[in-house]
Every structure is written in C-alpha cells, then in structure tokens.
TrEMBL record:
The organism's taxonomic lineage, starting at the top: Bacteria, Pseudomonadati, Pseudomonadota, Gammaproteobacteria, Lysobacterales
Record region (Disordered): 34-64
Presence of the UniProt keyword Membrane in the record: yes
Entry-linked Pfam families: Plug (PF07715), TonB_dep_Rec_b-barrel (PF00593)
Keywords per UniProt: Cell outer membrane, Membrane, Receptor, Signal, TonB box, Transmembrane, Transmembrane beta strand, Transport
Official protein name in the record: TonB-dependent receptor domain-containing protein
Domain of life according to the entry: Bacteria
Residue ranges constituting the TonB-dependent receptor plug domain according to the UniProt record: 81-197
Keyword set includes Transport: yes
C-alpha cells in the first residue's frame, strides 16, 4: 500500500496549488449541502487526481494534495476561493431541484440561458441533441468538459454551423457534482471557453452496488412520461487494495406526445390568432383515419382566373369554400413532431484507478452513449397538385441550379380524371387533384435520429520531490445519423405516377394517363410504390477528437508570504469532421433536402503556463498564458491574470481579466457547405402585397372570402426558400475580452454571500449570412407569379365587385408585382460584436435546528446590465441595449430551501425568469409594442400588451431513507400547476423556459446492496 505520507503529502502555500489545479477557478458559490469538493482541474488534469486541501488562514497551513476539504460549515468558502467565481452543484443539489438530466440542471442555473433541447430539435440540423448556453452567447461560447477534459463535438452542427458538445451524452448516473466556471478560461482550456466552463465530475471511486429508478408523470398529458434507471457497481479499495474500478449504466426513456393530446392545450391566444387551426383538423366533418377518401378536382377559369373545385365521385364528406365544394379528411393526430419526440438513451461509464509503486498512479475511464430519438410524422402524405410556388432546394452535385418539384396535374385522358365536363372544359380537360395517400400507413412517415458517442482515456500521474506530473491520451468521437421519411424521391415518384409530360402551352406537368399507382383503392401494391416515392433516407456525420496532454506542477520560488508555484503543460490534438451527405440528396433527387456536406481535419498544438504568487499574506496573484496554433491562422495567445485579496477574515475581494477566443469550426471553414433550405425568410414586398388582399377579404360578409383571408394572411411573410451557405477558409478566430470583479462575505458561520460583476466583449464574430440583408446575399432568384396568385387576385376582384360583400375597396386593387423568392446564396464571415455584462449574486445559509435537524437556504441570481450587438463592422450599437427585450430578461434567479430531519429531507425549489418586451430590440419595437399589442407582428393576449410577463415555477420534494440501504423520494414539479403564457415569438407558442405539461409527479427509489 502506498504510505499515507506519500499519498497525502503536505506542503505550504495552499492557494497556489488550489489555483493551479482549479484552472484559476477553485470553489466559488458552493451549495449549502456541499461539505467536500474537488476543484475544477486544469486542462490536462483529471478531476479524479489527487487535489490539494484548502488550509485555514495563511500560506503556512498544511495542504492535503488529495482534494480540497471545505471544513466547518458547509458554506465556509473563503479558504477555497480563487480569483474566479465557480458555482458547485452537488449530487444532492441536483436531486433537491428535481432535475433528472444534465439539461434540467442547466435549466435551473441563472447564468445559463435556454438553448436547443433534444425534444424540440427536429429539422435544426443537429436533431436529437441538447446544448449548454452560458450568458446567452450560444453553445459555441460555452466549453463543456467531463472530468476536466474535452469531449468530441456532436456529429451534426446546429444550423449546419455551430459545433457543440451534446450534454445528453454525459453519464448522468456517475455525476458526483458539476462545477460551473462563470469566467473566461481560454488561457487554460483554449477555444470555446469564452462565456465559461461547465465541468461535469464523476465519482473518484466506488465500492458496492446500487440501483436507482425514477419515473415522471404529467397531470395534464396522459402520454407524457420520463423514466430512468441506473445501476452502479464497483470493487477495490485504493488504500487497501491499491486499485478501484467501478462502472455505471444509465437508461433513460421519454415517451412521445402525439398531436391528439397537444392540439387543444396551447395557450388560449394561439387559437385567437389561428381561428382555423382546430377547424382545419376536420375532426367532426372529415373522413376518419383509414377510411377511403376519393379527394377533389379543381381547375382555373381562363377568363376570371378564379379557382373552381368539386368533390370526386363517392365523396361522403363535403365542405363548401369560396372556390366551391371540396371533399375533406381528418388530419391525423398521431403526429409527434410538434408535440414531442420519443427518446431512448443508454449511457455506460467505467472508471479505474491503480497505484503503481510509491509515487505513481494509473487511471483510465471510458464512456459510451447511445441515443435513439423518434418522432412519428402522423398524417399520411396527400397528393395536391401544385398551383403556387413549387418546392425549391439546392443540392451539392447540381451546384447553383435551383431544384424544383411540382405535384403534377391529371391530363384529359387520365383514367382517374372523373371530373365533371364543366370543370374539365375550363383547362382543356386538365384538372388538379387533391387526394390522400393512405396506403403506406399512419406510422410510416416521420423522423429518427441516432447518435453513438464515446470517449476513452488513459493516463499516469505521480510526483518527484515537491513536483507533481500528469499525462494522458484520450480519443473521443460521435456518429450521428438522421433518418427522414418526409420528402419525395423524384425517381421513385415518377415510378409511381409517371412518366410525366409537359403541356407546351401552359408548362403544366401532367402525370401518366395510366400510372402504376392506383387512385381509388388502398392496397399493398400502392404502399410499395409510395415507399419508393417517399423513401427513408439517411444523413450521417462523424466527428473525432484525439488528444495528448501533459503537465508538471510545483514550487519555483519562495517569497516571504509563501511559495510561488507554477504549472507548465502541452496539448496536441487531431480533430476531424465528416458529413458525406446522402447520395440521392446530393444529386437533387430528395425534395427540399439537398443536405450538408463537410470534410475537414486539422492538427492543433498548445503550450500553457500558470503561476500563483502570494504577494503578501493577504494578497495573491494568479496568472496564466496559453499559446494555441491552428493551421489556418496565426498562433493565438490568450492571457489571464487574477488577484485575490483577503481584506478581512470574513471578507475576500477578487478580480480577473482575460482574453478568450473561438477558432472557426470545421463546419465553418472546412470543405463543403450547406445545400438545403432556410425557413422563415421574410420578403417584405410579397408580405405586404398578400396581407393587403387578406385585410380586404377579412372584411367581407361572404364566408368564403373570410376563410381565404384567414388562409393567406401572413402566408408570404415567412417562407421556406432554397439556400446555399458556403464555408469560408479565410475566417479568423473570434476574440473576446473578459473581466470579473467580486467579493465573498461571511459575516457569521451560518451565512455566506458572494457578488460578482462580469463583463464579456466578443468581436470578429463568425456568423452565417443574414439573408434579410442584401449585402449578405451573393445571388437570389424569384419564382414567377403563380396560378394561385392570380386566383387570389380574382377572388379579391370578385368580392370588390359584389355589393353584398360590404367591403369598401381601394382603387386600384392590391395585386402581385413579383413572385416569391426562390433561392438565396451566402457565405460564413467574420462580422459583428457583442457586449454583455451584469452581476451574479449567491447567498447561502445553514441553520442548526438541534433535535429538529438542519435547514439550508440558498438564493442565486443573475442580473443582466447590458446586452448589446452590432451586426456589422460599423461604429456604435445599432440595436441598443437589448436587456429587457425579448429573450433578454434583466433577472433570472433561483431559490431553494432544504430541511433535513432524521431520515427525511424536504426540499422546495423556485426558478424565476423576469419579464421582457415582445420586441427583440429597439428597431423591432417600432412594430411590436404595447400600443400595437403585437409580437412578431401578430396579436398577443390583451392583458399582456406590454410584454412577456415574468415566469416562475416551484418544485416540492420529499425524500425518505428508512434504512441505510433504501431511499424513496416523491417530487411535485411545478407544484402550483402554472400554465405558460402565449408567446408569439416561439414556434411552440410558449416560451422555451416554460413547459406546457402542468404539474409533474416524480417518484424515485434507490437501493444499495
């Protein structure tokens, strides 16, 4: 056995080792339950390595190299502080807040901002993953570590640009605590650590066996459910056996939520703004799922341009519209894409430590995560002859040519053209068709995402004299695959409905007169054809990260106040990213899915040094410097300096200044590009022209006019268009200046308060093209004015000519002057800057209640002061200070209290988000303000015209431990059953930090063998 004198070697100068091993960021605001913590490890250091113990008083006190011990009251943090603030969230804290996943923990951190959530990630480019987002600077500004070392990026970048660590891949069952550094750390960790660092730390060792199971159920959604189970086992005692090995397996499952449970539970204002939403589901009037529906025919009057329609023979479900009668079907409600995707995750983690001789330890760990996310697409596809804009998209192998797809017409001799002679006569026998393609089945369409990620690490650490050393090699990677059964395959579609012909006079595409697909029946033969026409295609991505690092640390000089200690290290890494793209998509055969293609690799090298010097017994200087070399730009130097001053025994003053950077990702600067579509493109010309017609139609006394007005209102204000975004090999890294200034005050042994000012100025930002700005668009194309456009103009003209409509129409009538935008092309670039600053406040108290146990109370808050952005390289801040505007509340806060009594623990946790305006910034406020009572140019709830109200939820939990082996817990999340307000800026119709599930009941049981 390694002698205790060697395993717990004492040296003077506590703060030196603390700062070095803690990456200039040792324990900051510590949760009330924390009694023993390890620091955030310096970049090449494993968090499970022997770490120094915090001494009491000055540098003459002994230091335990095993780990930092926060002695006395669990909130006594002065002796563990360094210049940088760190928030520590223990395993017990996580349980008390009711969090079951790492993402839920981040949702309860005031410094974190809402980011992508896997259940809402479909069609984002990084489907199936979740992100961290400190200070609201994006996932690319937050570094996520596991035991002090990097993980590989998620396989598919968000928005095809932002590479990030998927927090869902981190082994939840093995988490001992989380340490959140809310200060810049590029001087220690390199790229990405601009807004801060989230370091997830696992147990150092474990012996025995334990099993835990948790299930969550909603009071409002029967289909909602989150279930977890974990098993952890280990053997070996480091002191007695000289080794310890343990492993854990965590299983997670979230049920999918179909639209049948979701459609009528949106906030009330949503239905005011979308009066046809439920009506268009046709629940009471349309043919039922699985019941044959013959569909409808339509044509356009060559003189008036008006649309005329009629149900196909045999229709049992007819509705009357402005264009005439139509056969309708119910919209199937097993769609899970809008309500919430089903997810299954399995994470395995193994950790081992082995003592070699008297001064050396070998360590290793391995992590593997398998994620499977599924969303049923619900409603079968419908065949609807295209009369408006066709689908348009770019694809890799077709270059800058815009691909287009129309659902064709039926020709006059088509065997399924059973329209009336009067309707056929309008267009020479040619008619359009609306028909429900039910053959493939209600569970065929949808999306699935799988992700396999891993990290394996092995290393050695030891000491020689007063110096310690460590080195490790790690390999990590992810393989992400998106399977979509959504879009048309052009070749398969033609096999089902072709060969096609084109009318030379009108350009209309016409299907075969006797296609292979048989309209009018539901059959397996039809189903086989539809599976070729709408195939499941895959998009695969791989990332890899190999790293070798090493450090040495020890005393270099002795000052009167103590030793100057320094650390020196290196890091070498190999990073690759590869997305070959689907072959059919690359050739333009999959509609609306040109796909992304990336191929990049690079080697990076880094040297770094850190030092801590006790200038006096009360004043300590911390410094760090890192040199990173990337292949495509000059070496980057990132410095950091910090000061810590013990003004009084109860008062600590601290401050830091550093420079941060983010290197361009391989998605932004490598080979390839994004060949796909962009949603929400706003064309002011078409938006204004369409809404001018809609405003007149909505005033009509004729119901058909009003229905059309509701349908076209805002329909051209946010469209999906083809887009191509090109990487830029000439990109430079983003740069940042970061500063903090704060105090830690402990006036009594039961109260501790910290307050820190933080400042981040990021410039030279790497941004995707802003396609609303002409200068960002390399090229753009438009569609011609369509049959549907002309039909809408004809309805307006007929309404205005009819006195019965009661509408006073202008002269001239509104018309279309241009078609919709078809495509845009742009490139990533360095442009713009952001400035954010504010205050973090953390207060913790603990009361000894004698025979009644103990009471812990905590309050944490982030108060934003400024959030300013300039989207170009000009001077000033065009959008002004956006704090208080949408998605930028001034205050985020949490409150917790935990009462421990005998074998019971009762916890109460409150999460608060402050109110904001509906407008995004001062320019947007010209159109969206209390006077207009709008957000995103649509109506908000009348009682909330002045902005989004503050939002809070509370969790109440009780845990009972009847024996040392058994633990039982019950938590009511959102115990007051608060329902979210209507949010016009969010596609879910309520804000991302709120939930629509009402009160959630969580049950947990754990047993140790």
């Amino acid at each position: 056995m390694l002698p205790a004198s060697r395993r717990h070697r004492c040296i003077p100068a506590t703060a030196l080792s603390i700062a070095l091993s803690a990456a200039l960021a040792a324990t900051g605001p510590v949760s009330a339950q924390t009694s023993a913590v390890d620091p955030v490890p310096a970049q090449p250091t494993d968090a499970s390595a022997p770490q120094p113990e915090a001494g009491r008083g000055n540098g003459d006190m002994p230091t335990d190299l095993e780990r930092i011990e926060v002695t006395g009251s669990s909130i006594k943090r002065i002796d563990g502080e360094t210049a940088s603030p760190v928030q520590i969230i223990s395993k017990q804290d996580i349980e008390n807040m009711g969090a079951r996943t790492l993402l839920q923990v981040l949702d309860n951190l005031p410094a974190n901002r809402p980011a992508q959530v896997d259940s809402k990630s479909l069609f984002t480019g990084s489907d199936g993953a979740s992100q961290a987002n400190l200070r609201g600077l994006g996932a690319q500004g937050t570094l996520v570590l596991l035991n002090g070392r990097r993980l590989s990026y998620y396989g598919a970048p968000a928005g095809f640009q932002t590479q990030f660590v998927n927090v869902d891949s981190i082994p939840a069952a093995a988490i001992e605590r989380m340490e959140v550094l809310t200060d810049g750390a590029s001087a220690v960790y390199g790229t990405d650590a601009v807004a801060g660092v989230i370091n997830v730390i696992t147990r150092r060792e474990y012996q025995g066996l334990e099993v835990t199971a948790t299930t969550d159920m909603s009071s409002r959604f029967d289909s909602y459910g989150e279930h977890q189970a974990s098993i952890t086992g280990g053997f070996g005692d480091l002191d007695e056996d000289r080794y310890n090995v343990y492993g854990t397996v965590n299983m997670y499952k979230r049920e999918g939520i179909p639209l049948s449970e979701w459609y009528d539970k949106k906030p009330a204002q949503y239905y005011v703004n979308n009066p046809n939403y439920i009506r268009n589901l046709r629940l009471d009037t349309g043919s039922a799922p699985g019941v044959f529906n013959p569909g409808s025919y339509f044509a356009f009057d060559p003189v008036t341009k008006a649309r005329k329609q009629e149900p196909a023979p045999g229709c049992q479900n007819v509705t009357i519209e402005a264009a005439g009668a139509r056969c309708i079907w119910q919209t199937w409600l097993n769609n899970e894409i809008d309500g919430g995707a089903e997810s299954e995750r399995i994470t395995a983690y193994v950790n081992g430590h082995f003592l070699i001789g008297d001064t050396t330890e070998a360590f290793a760990e391995a992590t593997y995560t398998d994620i499977d996310l599924r969303a049923n697409g619900g409603t079968p596809r419908s065949y609807g002859t295209t009369t408006g804009n066709p689908s348009s998209w770019f694809s890799r192998n077709t270059g800058t040519n815009v691909n287009q797809f129309f659902y064709p017409y039926l020709g006059p001799n088509n065997v399924y053209n059973k329209a009336s002679p009067e309707l056929k006569a309008l267009m020479g026998g040619v008619v359009g068709l609306q028909y429900l393609l039910q053959d493939a089945g209600d569970n065929y369409f949808g999306q699935r995402n799988t992700d396999e990620s891993y990290r394996a690490l092995a290393g050695l650490r030891g000491s020689f004299g007063d110096w310690s050393w460590e080195t490790a090699f790690a390999t990590a990677g992810t393989h992400s695959t998106t399977y979509q059964t959504v879009n048309v395959n052009l070749e398969g579609f033609e096999r089902a409905f072709g060969p096609f012909t084109t009318d030379p006079g009108t350009g209309r595409v016409i299907i075969s007169d006797n296609p292979a697909y048989q309209f009018g029946v539901i059959s397996e033969a039809n189903a086989a054809l539809l599976r070729e026409a709408y195939p499941t295609f895959d998009i695969q991505s791989w990332t890899r990260l190999h790293t070798l690092d090493g450090t040495v640390e020890g005393p270099v000089y002795t000052l009167p106040a103590g030793d100057v200690r320094a650390a020196f290290g290196f890091n070498v890494s190999r990073e690759t990213f590869y997305t070959p793209g689907n072959e059919d998509a690359a050739n333009g055969l999959i509609t609306q899915q040109g796909g992304s293609w990336f191929d990049g690799a690079r080697n990076t090298y880094a040297l770094f040094a850190e030092a801590v010097a006790p200038i006096t017994e009360k004043l300590e200087l911390e410094a760090a410097l890192r040199l990173d070399k990337y292949p495509d730009f000059d070496a980057n130097i990132a410095p950091k300096i910090g000061l810590k001053y013990q003004a009084l025994s109860q008062l600590l003053l601290r401050g830091t200044y550093s420079q941060g950077f983010r290197a361009p990702s391989l998605a932004e600067s490598g080979s390839g590009g994004v060949f796909a579509q962009i949603g929400g493109y706003r064309d002011e010309t078409r938006c204004d022209e369409t809404n001018a017609m809609a405003d007149l139609l909505l005033q009509s006394s004729r119901p058909g006019d009003v229905d059309l007005g509701r349908t076209v209102l805002n329909s051209d204000c946010a469209r999906t268009v083809a887009r191509m975004t090109e990487p830029n090999p000439d990109l430079e890294p983003e740069k940042a200046k970061i500063a903090t200034l704060g105090i830690v005050y402990e006036p009594t042994n039961w109260l501790s308060v910290s307050a820190d000012y933080w400042f981040i100025y990021r410039r030279n930002e790497i941004v995707a093209p802003d396609y609303s700005k002409p200068e960002d668009i390399i090229s753009m194309t438009r569609f011609p004015i369509t049959d549907t456009d002309r039909a809408n103009e004809a309805v307006v003209a007929a309404m205005c000519a009819d006195p019965a409509s009661g509408v006073a129409c202008p002269n001239p009538l509104p018309t279309y002057t241009v078609g919709n935008v078809a495509s845009v092309v742009g490139q990533y670039k360095n442009r713009g800057r952001t400035l954010v600053d504010g205050f973090d406040i953390d207060a913790r108290s603990r009361f000894d209640l004698g025979e009644w146990g103990s009471l812990n109370i905590g309050l944490a808050a982030t108060i934003a002061r400024r959030n300013m952005y300039n989207s170009d390289d000009g001077s000033g801040w065009y959008y002004g200070n956006t704090v208080g505007y949408y998605n930028n509340p001034r205050l985020r806060a949490t409150f917790n209290t935990d009462w421990n009594y005998q074998n019971w623990t009762t916890s109460f946790y409150v999460n608060y988000v402050g109110k904001t305006k509906w407008a995004w910034e001062q320019v947007d406020a010209l159109d969206n303000n209390a006077e207009t009572c709008t957000g995103s140019l649509v109506n908000v709830s009348p009682s909330q015209c002045d902005g989004a109200p503050s939002w809070w939820t509370a969790n109440l939990g009780v845990s009972w431990r009847p024996t040392e082996k058994l633990t039982v817990g019950v938590t009511a999340k959102n115990v007051f059953n608060r329902l979210p307000f209507y949010d016009p800026n969010d596609w879910m119709s309520f804000s991302g930090y709120a939930n629509n599930f009402g009160r959630i009941y969580s049950f947990t049981v754990g047993y140790k063998f």
